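Why does residue order matter? Because the sequence determines the fold. Keep that principle in mind as you read this record.
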Amino acid sequence: MHQHFPDSPPPIPPAGGVPGGVGGVQEWERTYALFTHLSLLLILLPLVPVIPPLVMWLIKRDASTFVDAHGKEAVNFSLSLVFYLIGVSVAIFVLAPLTCGAALLVLWPAYLAVWVLGAYGMIMAVLAAKAGRLYRYPLTIRLV
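Structure:
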């Protein structure tokens, strides 16, 4: 039996509920959720990673609870990554001159850690979406 937490997305219905679905989730839902998470690859462009998952989520959120849950997670995670990258960048920009560059040596690994978190979270979310499971990104600020 699934344990349901107050802030977690609703559980997905058991298998057999939808023809062709895995765990009651149709193929188009899994594919759509998968591409919503893959849109996080655009994190290389400042602030752009938030727009594709947001648009994808807004388009299909009413069509499927599965897509709605994955879309919210992707939007929240991409926003969190942007906040983390901005925070580390501001800290580097402000503290590096004050510490003769020492802050850069200390904060650069934090910047890299945000990228690793993004890659790890995206891969795990894509695998979960493909399998028809829900996924909660780690270290996510849930705003949506």
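Helices lie at 27-38, 51-60, 65-98, 102-131.
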